[in-house]
Amino acid sequence: MKILLISNSARGEAIAEALLRSQPTPELFVASTVRSLGLMRMAKEVQVMDIDSLAKVVQMAKGIKPDFAFIAPDDPIGAGLADRLECVGVPCVAPKKTLARIEASKGFARNLMKKYGIEGNPRFRVFSFSSMDAKRQLDLDMRHYMEYELKGQYVVKYDALKGGKGVKLSGEHLSTIDSSAQYAMECIDQCGTVVIEEKLIGVEFSLLSFVSGTATVDMPAVQDHKRAHDDDIGANTGGMGTYSDSNHSLPFLTEEDLKAASAFNCRIAAALLEECGEPYKGILYGGFIATKDGVKVIEYNARFGDPEALNVLPLLETDFVSVCQAILKGTLTPDLVRFAAKATVCKYITPKSYPEDKKEKGQTVLVPEKIPENVRVFYGDVSMLDTGTLQLGGSRSIGVVGIGDTLHDAEQAAQAFCEKITGPVRFRSDIGTVESIQKRVDLMQKLRRP
Length: 450
Ligand SMILES: Nc1ncnc2c1ncn2[C@@H]1O[C@H](COP(=O)(O)OP(=O)(O)O)[C@@H](O)[C@H]1O
Ligand SMILES: [Mg+2]
Description:
Layout: E1 2-7, H1 10-20, E2 27-32, H2 37-42, E3 45-48, H3 54-64, E4 68-71, H4 74-78, H5 81-87, E5 92-93, H6 97-104, H7 106-115, E6 124-128, H8 135-149, E7 154-158, E8 167-169, H9 177-191, E9 193-198, E10 203-212, E11 215-218, E12 223-224, E13 227-229, E14 233-236, E15 241-244, H10 255-276, E16 281-291, E17 294-301, H11 308-312, H12 320-329, E18 343-351, E19 375-379, E20 382-384, E21 390-392, E22 398-404, H13 407-420, E23 425-426, H14 434-448
Parallel strand pairs: 1-2, 1-4, 2-3, 4-5
Antiparallel strand pairs: 6-9, 7-8, 7-9, 10-11, 10-16, 12-15, 13-14, 15-18, 16-17, 18-22, 18-23, 19-22, 20-21
Helix pairs in contact: 6-7, 8-9
The protein binds adenosine-5'-diphosphate (ADP) and magnesium ion (MG).
């Protein structure tokens, strides 16, 4: 069995590791943006390339003739790599371009939910213009919507992939109606439309599902930490760390919340089949927020999250290649998927100046050789030189995952290993701590109080 993995980060390494635990052991070929230590150790071949150049990936696939491909990141999925690979006879665990609009267009996702009666949207409108004359009117309409209809509590969303940097919130990134209207117009200038929606209040979480057509099988729920610094302060990042609990729910969620999130993923898969006329095959990532009025949808992604994949994949006890094959064949059933009843905490080691700057790019990071049994280490934007030296890139460097019977054990394991990594790097000490989790539980309790 030959598998082609397309990877740009530590998430790819978590996928590779899970695939290689399958029996019989597959041969893994990787198209990767970085010369990753983990991938070099695990794969039969790693080709370092620009994975957004679809033609190059297709060329590599033609040479290898893999049984299937697994596309990890959003950009090549959104650009239609699955369509291109399937044209040369390589089935993909990743949705085709029309289906991937669930992530690539936030307007498409909101409208799909509305059209198929899937509740969970905040109040929203998708704005666009057809002629230059309409621009002034459009500006007035958007201002009116933000100021009066949404009462100054709004979110402006770029309507295309933007690497997690296209969403701006009133009161946080947008302090005046002028700057908000200006940003909304910039979005329209760049991609034709903009989504403006109600700003929800609550606690966010992710629920990812394996999907094959209308069959969905959930993974453990995960909570991410987007802000750069402890106590959720600072700029938004790709995600500084995540945790998942041994019961596969989260301490601040009710059973109903988790069921609601699961039902959303299921209904989205069915709506996509109906709307696009072909089955979604891959990973569906629901980004949710638990509010006083129940669970609402923040966004959908068409792939594993990074770091979410680092939490859940090490817990997968069943054969990942069999899961992928079932996704491709349309035979996905819950009995194929079982996760260990363990808690995980992932803390991302990043360059010190991340995300604002890339001052540490090219500098060395030292990681202890000996990794404890309850820790997993996944390399992101770190290149291995021929000398074996690990060189930092500008983005998130190393995902350190602690695994334990309780969140506390998992947190301690991740924290202890992170403290041993040296170089011009940092990480968030608060992720997964008892205090940090209690804050989220308290906030949810306060919101739910009548
Ligand atoms: N309607 C909303 N209400 C409150 N916060 C939101 C809303 N939409 C997005 N956000 C915040 O902005 C972040 C990024 O938005 P999201 O839709 O997930 O886009 P992306 O991940 O592509 O940047 C979310 O994690 C959340 O914190
Ligand atoms: Mg998001």
